[in-house]
């Protein structure tokens, strides 16, 4: 079943065309990576899909609901872990999780149970009562993703989840993301080629607001006649004439 | 309502866990009352009698509510945290109430402490104190509204300058809390009475001293300002929240 279907999705900021006629279909349970250089339109696409930004034209159907006609229904089924770590710094880890559960309408008892489940799943037990601001970058990022997952979203948007993390923290986060594969639909944006290759079922490469290529890492390498995935990415993300 | 309360609860924690907030909202007005009580003990001045002084200090203390609310909102705006909240099913009404709701009880507690200290320093205990706290609610709403407006439009550094320095000074100098505005008179007095601060102090003084018939002539100005500012704040916040602008 299709989780996301974009139909000529377009976003224009004054003179800049950030996303141009994006037509993309993502299946339920898929982990889909959106790649592209800075300004390619990845984050704008994510913002439109999670109803933070209204498209200039076009639409997207997210689990049966239009992002333009019924954004409230879309918001109830999705969650996002933004590019920068989005946590309430003065609250403890536990309070952050309980707050997000409450904001999505989960009752207090269930919120407490779900909070503990998230704390266990993301190995945050030792810091559960500590202020979020005192955590390491890696732990803050894990908390940020746990906050996105506590609402049981059917679709999770991860906008550059490992940006700025050291290798160990990144690998730990990959393990957490891998555990989610197949259970929910994940849309991931990243600048790290190996991350996209290691985690994704399919990859879409954006260039100047347009989707230039889509497929598995192996398919994209074959299409670009590249030995490595990074070479394939460079081919698609820099050559406008490269075919899909 | 439940979603809004979850958000409001977070905002309460943000406000009360900041020691600067507590110092400014409770410590500063209390220190001022003690200082003026000491001055009054040496050189008695009618304006510095607690019944005259405490309403002015209470209004001045409420001006810090603007700083707290504006700082909270502008800081949220400057991080991805607000992006996360905007992606949630919270409505714009939930946001505005969630930011406003924690500040009103805080304002009431602040006024109660101010008058409590005034009583401890010799002011007579009367039921008019409760009436005065009621009369100060539109002033609290006004300051919350200014905070919502400033927090929606300015960044946290600008908020510090405009709400922390400019507004608190405006509400101090142009309210008649520290000196009789008739002593300066002229344009200064005209400007002071074209703004809500002097009216807020006069309404509170009228309530505290039992001159009930004088309350509304000043309070309506405060209510009008509060309504206009709150409306502007809601419009500004909704505009920031609108997905068309992102």
Which key phrases capture this entry?
heterodimer; A: 244 residues; alpha/beta; 4-stranded antiparallel beta sheet; 9 helices; 10 strands; B: 246 residues; mainly alpha; 13 helices; 80% helix; 0% strand; globular
Helices and strands in order:
The complex is a heterodimer of chains A (244) and B (246).
Chain A: E1 2-13, E2 16-27, E3 31-35, H1 42-49, E4 57-62, E5 65-66, H2 71-77, E6 78-81, H3 93-103, H4 108-121, H5 137-149, E7 155-159, H6 167-180, E8 185-189, H7 193-199, E9 202-207, E10 210-215, H8 217-224, H9 229-238
Parallel strand pairs in A: 3-8, 3-9, 6-7, 7-8
Antiparallel strand pairs in A: 1-2, 1-4, 4-5, 9-10
Chain B: H1 2-16, H2 19-42, H3 50-78, H4 81-86, H5 92-100, H6 103-120, H7 128-135, H8 137-153, H9 156-173, H10 181-184, H11 186-194, H12 196-209, H13 215-241
Helix pairs in contact in B: 1-5, 2-3, 2-6, 3-6, 3-8, 3-9, 3-12, 6-8, 7-12, 8-13, 12-13
Task: Describe, in plain words, how this protein is organized in 3D.
The complex is a heterodimer of chains A (244) and B (246). The model of chain A has no long low-confidence stretch (mean pLDDT 89). Chain A is built from 9 helices and 10 strands. In chain A, helix 3 packs across helix 4, helix 3 (93-103) runs parallel beside helix 5 (137-149) and helix 5 packs parallel to helix 6. Chain A has 244 residues and is an alpha/beta fold. The radius of gyration of chain A is 18 Å and the shape is globular. A 6-stranded mixed beta sheet of chain A has the order 6-7-8-3-9-10, with helices on both faces. A 4-stranded antiparallel beta sheet of chain A has the order 2-1-4-5, with helices on one face. Chain B has 246 residues and is mainly α. Chain B has one domain. Helix content of chain B is 80%, strand content 0%. Chain B has helices spanning 2-16, 19-42, 50-78, 81-86, 92-100, 103-120, 128-135, 137-153, 156-173, 181-184, 186-194, 196-209, 215-241. In chain B, helix 1 (2-16) runs parallel beside helix 5 (92-100) and helix 3 (50-78) crosses helix 12. Chain B is globular. The two termini of chain B are 26 Å apart. Classes of the chains: A alpha/beta (244), B mainly alpha (246). The A-B interface holds A 47, 50-54, 71-72, 75-76, 78-88, 90-91, 95, 99-105, 107, 147-148 and B 2-3, 5-7, 9-10, 13-14, 17-18, 79-81, 83-90, 242-244, 246.
């Amino acid at each position: 079943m299709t989780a996301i279907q974009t139909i000529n999705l377009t976003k224009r900021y004054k003179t800049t065309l950030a996303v141009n006629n994006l037509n993309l279909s993502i299946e339920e349970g898929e982990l889909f990576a959106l790649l592209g250089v800075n300004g390619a339109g990845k984050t704008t696409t994510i913002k439109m899909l999670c109803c933070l930004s209204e498209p200039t034209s076009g639409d997207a159907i997210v689990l049966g609901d239009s992002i333009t006609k019924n954004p409230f229904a879309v918001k109830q089924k999705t969650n996002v872990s933004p590019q920068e770590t989005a946590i309430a710094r003065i609250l403890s880890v536990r309070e952050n999780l309980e707050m997000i559960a409450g904001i999505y309408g989960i009752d207090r008892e269930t919120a407490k149970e779900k909070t503990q489940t998230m704390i266990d799943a993301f190995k945050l037990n030792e810091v559960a009562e500590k202020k979020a601001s005192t955590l390491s970058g890696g732990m803050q990022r894990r908390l940020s993703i746990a906050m996105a997952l506590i609402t049981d979203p059917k679709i999770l948007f991860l906008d550059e989840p490992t940006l700025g993390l050291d290798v160990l923290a990144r690998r730990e986060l990959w393990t957490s993301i891998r555990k989610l594969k197949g259970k929910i639909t994940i849309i991931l944006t990243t600048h790290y080629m190996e991350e996209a290759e290691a985690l994704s079922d399919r990859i879409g490469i954006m260039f100047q607001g347009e989707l230039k290529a889509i497929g598995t890492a192996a398919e994209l390498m074959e299409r670009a006649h590249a030995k490595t995935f990074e070479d394939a990415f460079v081919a698609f993300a820099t050559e406008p004439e490269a075919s899909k | 309502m439940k979603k809004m309360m979850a958000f409001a609860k977070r905002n309460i924690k943000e406000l009360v866990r900041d020691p600067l907030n507590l110092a400014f909202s409770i410590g500063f007005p209390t220190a001022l009352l003690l200082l003026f009580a000491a001055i009054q003990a040496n050189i008695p001045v009618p304006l510095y009698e607690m019944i005259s002084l405490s309403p002015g200090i209470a209004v001045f203390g409420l001006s810090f509510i603007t700083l707290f609310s504006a700082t909270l909102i502008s800081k949220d705006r400057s991080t991805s945290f607000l992006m996360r909240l905007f992606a949630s099913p919270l409505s714009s009404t939930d946001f505005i109430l969630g930011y406003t709701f924690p500040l009103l009880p805080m304002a009431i507690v602040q006024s109660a402490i101010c008058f409590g200290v005034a009583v401890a320093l010799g002011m007579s205990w009367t039921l008019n104190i409760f009436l005065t706290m009621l009369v100060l609610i539109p002033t609290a709403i006004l300051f919350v509204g200014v905070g919502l407006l400033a927090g929606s439009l300015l960044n946290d550094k600008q908020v510090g300058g405009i709400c922390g320095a400019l507004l608190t000074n405006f509400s101090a100098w142009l309210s008649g809390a520290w000196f009789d505005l008739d002593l300066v008179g002229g344009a200064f007095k005209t400007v002071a009475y074209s703004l809500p601060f002097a009216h807020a102090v006069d309404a509170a003084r009228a309530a505290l001293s039992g001159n009930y018939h004088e309350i509304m002539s000043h309070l309506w100005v405060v209510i009008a300002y509060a309504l206009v500012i709150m409306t502007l704040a809601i419009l500004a916040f909704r505009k920031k929240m609108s997905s068309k602008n992102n």
